[in-house]
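Record 1 of the preview.
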Amino acid sequence: MRKLILILSLLSSTSIFAQLREGFDPDEAKALIAMCNSYTFLELYGSDSSIIPNGYQKTYTSEAAVLDNMFQVYTNDKIGVINFRGSTSKFSSWVENIYSAMIPANGVIYIDTYKFPYSFAKDTSATVHSGYALALVIFSPILLDQIQKLNDNGIYDILITGHSQGGALANLCRAYLENLPEEKLSSKNKFKSYAFANPMIGNKNFADEFHERYCETNMSYSIINPADLVPKMPIHYQEEGRLMSFQHLQDVVFGKETMDIRKLGLDYVIRKFEIGLTNYINFSNELIEKLISNSYTSIVMPEYTKDINYYQTGNIRELEPFPYPKILIDTTQVSKEELEKLNPDKDGKYYRKEPSFFQHRPYNYYVAILKEYFSKEFKELDPICLPENL
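->
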């Protein structure tokens, strides 16, 4: 009897807990948002060893693609993880976000002389974000090769994750893999997705099908902070004109101009956008073709649709907004003109303003997950905020 109990105990600590199960799992969420921070830690500190959770081994990191996307592959016993990188400061990465005209969820993209058929949904009325679709199609051969390598090692349970743009790609990747022809991947594969701070990726028809197939089975989650405006994007197109000018966006990315994300509402859209839907689509197409001309001879996208009314996907889990610490400003180091632009706090002192995108930072999502589900670890966490985010 004692021998049987020991055997059952061993089984419960390995095979049972090494399988994907339905439902939101805080342990999975914590591990995945930690891995999403790998890219930040590598960029800032040259190492991600302090943030990668115990038991997970990084087995692959892709090269940066033409739109500056990357993905990593991790393993933990019989669990695999695909982790997409979020937006970077490169202009090509932001063009991918802004390239938000929709294409049908089923079609063909031609890159050079190669034909890439794709399917993200069964519903013929479903449409998806063209920039994210293009990025995923470019990655698809390498992605399928890495999944095959996981399968060769007996790994069929696969978590798909990413933060921000990476979260959008995670959800779209989930849809892509689930709609592949049967001969492309083993039927043993089982996918579960956690997207963090992800922008929207498709229209209502796409979102409805995504919800029915992956959310009602409790195998897809989107974790957002309601104070973070990125999950409310892309900005819905208005007939008054096209999306924000790319010159303005480029100036923002490279620090020549400031942008307050809180103002990116309908009034901003109407004020900033110009021309019309047709010109916007043509302009986007020309821009994307020029952008990738250094890497590919040609690209032919499917005909764009006029539906760019985006809807959220995934079972939504909301976190508390992230508190920005009170950081006193040394007024002796501030010019009189700059000081006049600041408002003193109730105590008459001046404190730093919360920077744009603070609520969107991946490390803040990590901290919020700990605060929500792992109070002991949260209390022991140091630092609570990365200095670079302040």
